[in-house]
Amino acid sequence: MLQKLDNILLEKEIKPTAMRLLVLDFLLSQQTAVSLSDLEAAFYRSDRITLYRTLKTFEEKGLVHSIMDGTGSVKYAICEEGCECAPEDMHVHFFCNKCQETICLPKSRIPKIPLPDNFKQEEINLVIKGTCGNCS
């Protein structure tokens, strides 16, 4: 398993450190997006700054994407294989009002939105809010 994690990081040109391997393993085991606070709870002896920098490195290298789900806390989820996390590859997210979980919906793509001339798209975020299947 450790070799698989190493390979995932190396494919994204991320140096595999002990903390990066632990965070990657944790993220891969999650069914929902996680916040920095979630990571802190899972790694309570780890430094918040180190965890934050790990997430930002993963995001910059296209290993995770960030989600603004309206809770005031940025959440992170592993990118699908082959996803470049570019706007044309972005998908919809679902936020459950009951359990407060954020779930990626990778089969529901955000459509390309035509913008006026001289407008430059920098990010897209589409979050559907409601009740998930587990809470229904």
From TrEMBL:
Textual note on the cofactor: Binds 1 zinc ion per subunit.
SUPFAM superfamilies in the record: Winged helix' DNA-binding domain
InterPro entries to which the protein is assigned, alphabetical: FUR, WH-like_DNA-bd_sf, WH_DNA-bd_sf
GO molecular function, one term: DNA-binding transcription factor activity
Keywords on record: Metal-binding, Zinc
One GO BP annotation of this record: regulation of secondary metabolite biosynthetic process
Cofactor: Zn(2+)
Binding residues annotated for Zn(2+), in chain numbering: 96, 99, 132, 135
Superkingdom field: Bacteria
Signal sequence annotation: none
Record keyword Metal-binding present: yes
Xref: Pfam families: FUR
Name used for this protein in its record: Fur family ferric uptake transcriptional regulator
